[in-house]
């Protein structure tokens, strides 16, 4: 039993088949239109109505098939039916169309010499555009069957039949010419060669179409996997951000670069979780995380992780962002405004935010079966420490000195120099008004 993804890919492939068949039918009509015009202009005045009627019938069949295809009523067996009708029509055209309007009793066997079989390859080409190997093979078999049916129909009434075996091995030039130009020369060997070439061409086209189907199938599967990954990743970052990350395969590889890290925590979450049932707490976090992720994404940031009730977001990792310090500060102010103006699961939230700028190590980590993308480094630790210092300083957002130096587009006010746990030297901290 095939899984849902395989069925979806096969549905995409079926759509590609219909698109190819539609193109083939339109191309078929474009080819037949000038032929019909030629018969109307040149054939009708001399009494050749059969050719015009045949071409008109072919065009009508094509339009009927195209109508069924465009209206969604076309079934797979229709393709074989219409192709068979095309082949039968060509056979009848060879049998019934007069070779000359002025001279009668011209041996019809001469039609194979006058026109050859190259027109029959157009049927193979039309079948190939449908991206169906079976239809291509069917077209080759149908064309060969029609070729021999017409050949036998024409040659059966003949009382005298000459073939290549009637030419003696030591025949001179005159004997060759006389035999080959004899109206009773039917050339069975030529029909065998033509059949072999047509069947070989159909087989090669079927192989080519099969390979093309595999390419289309692989690309459809890859596209679906890409969209699925984008949808999953898009739960944490906006769609355009996810697309940019997925388009650059090296974005998630381990690397070291300068970035701005935002650490956001909910104040008093322990009290809220004690007063609400677990389901309500999860609902509150989901509502807040959804809204917060959207704000971070609006400023080209990426939510790295949710740690309990906290959010860790990175700017300039993994996406390139020149003004990452400004973006992080704007995102922090946007989160504070969000908390002021909106209630989540009936609760008004208070946020504490820390922002630090500096070198960051980022990349995918984990075992062979499961990995996650994260950020490491002293800058990440500093952002978390600054978030906690808000409680002591009575602020809502604290940014490091490096962030303030780089965030030229956002006014930041210096709060003072503080001692940060894990650091020997004091650190200047800045805040931003909402």
What is the gist of this entry?
The protein is of the alpha+beta class and 434 residues long. The chain has 14 helices and ten strands. The longest helix is centred in the middle third of the chain and has 46 residues, at 188-233.
Entry keywords:
434 residues, alpha+beta, Alpha-Beta Plaits, 8-stranded mixed beta sheet, 10 strands
SS summary, helix count? 14
Q: Roughly how much helix do the residues carry, as a percent range?
A: 55-70%
Report the sheet with the most strands, covering strand number, pairing sense and barrel closure. 8 strands, mixed
Whole-number count of domains: 2
Structural overview:
The chain is built from 14 helices and 10 strands. It is an alpha+beta fold. It folds into 2 domains: 4-230, no CATH class; 251-431, Alpha-Beta Plaits (2-Layer Sandwich), CATH 3.30.70. A hairpin with a 4-residue loop joins β6 (350-366) and β7. The mean pLDDT is 82.
Protein topology:
Blueprint: H1 4-43, H2 49-70, H3 76-96, H4 111-115, H5 121-129, H6 133-155, H7 173-180, H8 188-233, H9 239-247, E1 255-267, H10 269-275, H11 278-298, E2 302-307, E3 310-315, H12 324-341, E4 343-344, E5 347-348, E6 350-366, E7 371-376, H13 378-393, E8 397-400, H14 401-406, E9 413-418, E10 427-431
Parallel strand pairs: 6-8
Antiparallel strand pairs: 1-3, 1-6, 2-3, 4-5, 6-7, 8-10, 9-10
Helix pairs in contact: 1-2, 1-5, 1-8, 2-3, 3-6, 5-6, 5-8, 6-8, 8-9, 11-12
């Amino acid at each position: 039993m095939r899984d849902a993804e395989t069925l979806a890919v096969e549905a995409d492939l079926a759509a590609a088949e219909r698109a190819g068949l539609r193109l083939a039918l339109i191309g078929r009509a474009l080819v037949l239109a000038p032929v019909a015009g030629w018969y109307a202009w040149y054939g009708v005045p001399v009494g050749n109505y059969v050719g015009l009627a045949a071409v008109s019938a072919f065009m009508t069949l094509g339009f009927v098939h195209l109508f069924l295809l465009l209206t969604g009523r076309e079934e797979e067996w229709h393709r074989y039916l219409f192709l068979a009708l095309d082949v039968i029509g060509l056979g009848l055209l060879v049998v019934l169309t007069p070779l000359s309007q002025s001279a009668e009793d011209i041996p019809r066997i001469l039609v194979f010499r006058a026109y050859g079989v190259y027109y029959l390859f157009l049927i193979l080409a039309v079948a190939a555009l449908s991206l169906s190997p079976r239809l291509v093979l069917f077209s080759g078999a149908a064309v060969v069957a029609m070729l021999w049916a017409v050949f036998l129909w024409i040659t059966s009434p003949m009382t005298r039949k000459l073939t290549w075996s009637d030419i003696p091995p030591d025949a001179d030039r005159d004997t060759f010419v006389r035999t080959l130009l004899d109206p009773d020369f039917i050339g069975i060997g030529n029909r065998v060669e033509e059949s072999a070439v047509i069947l070989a061409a159909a087989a090669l086209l079927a192989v080519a179409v099969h390979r093309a189907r595999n390419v289309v199938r692989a690309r459809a599967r890859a596209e679906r996997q890409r969209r699925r990954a984008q949808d999953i990743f898009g739960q944490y970052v906006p769609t355009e951000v996810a697309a940019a990350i997925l388009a650059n395969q090296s974005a998630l590889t381990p690397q070291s670069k300068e970035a701005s890290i935002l650490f956001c925590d909910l104040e008093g979450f322990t009290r809220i979780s004690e007063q609400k049932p677990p389901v309500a707490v999860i609902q509150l976090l989901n509502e807040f995380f959804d809204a917060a992720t959207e704000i971070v994404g609006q400023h080209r940031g990426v939510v790295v992780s949710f740690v309990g009730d906290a959010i860790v977001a990175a700017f300039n990792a993994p996406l390139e962002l020149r003004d990452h310090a400004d973006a992080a500060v704007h995102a922090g102010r946007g989160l504070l405004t969000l908390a002021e103006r909106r209630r989540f699961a009936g609760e008004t939230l208070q946020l504490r935010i820390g922002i630090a700028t500096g070198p960051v190590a980022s990349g995918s980590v984990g075992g062979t079966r499961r990995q996650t993308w994260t950020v490491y480094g002293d800058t990440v630790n500093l952002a978390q420490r600054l978030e906690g210092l808000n409680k002591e300083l009575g602020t809502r957002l604290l940014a490091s000195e490096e962030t303030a130096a780089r965030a030229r587009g956002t006014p930041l006010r210096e709060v003072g120099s503080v001692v940060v746990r894990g650091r020997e030297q004091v650190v200047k901290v800045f805040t931003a008004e909402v």
